Amino acid sequence: MRKSRNVLFLAGFFLFVLASFAQMPPQVKVIIDNASIRSKPELDAEILDIAAKDTLFEVLEKAGPWYQIEMGTDPAGKVIYGYIHESMVEPVGVPEPEPQAVSEPKPVPAPPQEDADARVKITPHDKLMSGSFIKYGFGDHWLASFGFDVGIGRHLGLGLEIQPYYNHDTDIDLSVLQIDVFVNAKLGFNLWLFTLYGGGGLGPDLSFTIAEIEGQSSSKFKTRLAYHGILGLVLEIGGVAVVFEFQPIMVPDPNHDRDTWDQFFFVGLRF
User: Fold this and answer.
1) pLDDT surpassing 70 at residue 128
2) Residues in Cβ contact with 258 at an 8 Å cutoff, skipping those fewer than 6 apart
3) Count of structural domains within the chain
4) pLDDT at 71 over 70
5) Co-location of 85 and 140 in the same domain
6) What are phi and psi of 104, to 5 degrees?
């Protein structure tokens, strides 16, 4: 009796093995447009790749309704494996019974490729020295400065700078109000948190003078052409930048045989 049971057990095991091999074809072919290849034989496992319709894969084994397939090799020559559901493929070379319907989530569409022009598009932050500024200068005398710059690309900026100056000499009772208005061009480079730049500009010098001489008051207004050079460094700190500049400024005077450059050092903020 025991011997008969052993024979029946071996016969059943042998038939099971034969059935397993009969159900596992040497290859499978993808029968849908986008088939998910997963890291494990589970519907919620990680998607390793998306296979196109009619793609052929070598079958290594079958785990329930999942085929373990060979996806290729990595750069080191190691074979890469994955799992694909039987509802997405058909066997090649061996007839396969009709698979049970399994609700497979639709593959997540690949994100749209970013346009190459959009990747290299320059943002306002990347443009050279865009923004408003206010500075304080000292040298031959004190000097205020404020204005704005507009970046044109990564290395060029254009701007407007206004430098008012007021002085009152009590010894001779002389008051001077002078305003220089410069249209500037600057060339620079961004280096991590720093921006190095140089350039220059020109514009009108507007001066208004009031003098008291022996009880007589006189005033005079004159306009001249002024120009200056610019050499600067900007340190970016969050949304605010600290500005350090050196400017030689020339306001030619026809009453002087030799004009000289006034030299100023500026410290300020750019917003």
Assistant:
1) no
2) none
3) 2
4) yes
5) no
6) -105, 125
